[in-house]
UniProtKB/TrEMBL annotation:
Pfam families the UniProt entry points to: Abhydrolase_3
Ranges where the Alpha/beta hydrolase fold-3 domain occurs: 100-300
Residue positions of the active site: S174
Protein name listed in UniProt: Alpha/beta hydrolase fold-3 domain-containing protein
Keywords: Hydrolase
Keyword Plastid: no
Gene Ontology MF terms: triacylglycerol lipase activity
Keyword check for Hydrolase: yes
Amino acid sequence: MGTLSTLATLIRASLGTAVRRMKRGPLRPGWSFAYEATVAFMKANNERLYLRPAPEQREEVERLARTTSALRRVHREEVSAGGVPSVWFSPPERSGDAVVLYLHGGAYVMGSPRTHGDLLARLALGTGLRVLAPDYRLAPEHPFPAQLEDTLAVYRWLLSSGVSPRRVVFAGDSAGGGLALSTLVAARDQGTPLPAGAVVIAPWVDLECGGASVERNAAYDWGDKAMLLHWAGWFLGGAPAREPLASPLHADLRGLPPLFVHVGSAELQYDDGVRITEKARAGGVQAHLEVWPEMVHDFQTFGEGFPESVRGTTKLCEHLQRVLLDAERQEGPGIGGPP
């Protein structure tokens, strides 16, 4: 039944997109039919699912995962990282011994290394580095701070295994981007050595969803404020929405390593990306904001069939390598050395 419902949603979204474009043209000037239909499908699928029990949402999202050409080119290995189930994505030829610690998105309710496998594989191939993806606990069964605890455990495991913190770069998308920033803050406060930096995609850093773009871009993106607030409630589990380690927009960001923030101009989280970048800069953090015109949330995950996704992933790889190279220049040789 789930597969048939998903297929019916896809057909309706595609037909609706075709009719709308014939009458009024593309929803955004630069959108192809394939891109617009994909966004329409994802939004319709979210509208169909978000009020259902969390296990059903996860099952539907997992069903959409496919084995892609990028996934066939990397080696995947399951590992218990500090007691947290995780997956290594390793390219056939490594360019160094640095590690990308990637935190998947999914509103803290769904998602896994499997749902994000294609992107993780493309990051490994594009950087020549190993990518470690924790399968952290999800809400509502495991509300905040379970996800933060799991990520800290994985990071400490990496350090205890002999990986230098300066050879680690955090990355993540959406909720995972927010979680990456929260983990930096928590690690700093606990005295844990910080990684070289972080590269995040559309970080969800304000669980009150107070940015104007949440409503301004609702007509274009594949979610809306009601969905975000529903998932945020599950994640918070009674914690205040302004808790700094849940909504890092309200955290003290001073002393954090360099940040690269990627956002689409047509996405709900656009203002989250802008505001967290501005706050980081105000706190003395080296922060770069990469705005992608006309792009929606997490467009980098759309796959190699979309030129926009390919360009976005290429830039992510450049920024991951930049963070590590800058850390190497500051600390001396080693980060980009042979495995």
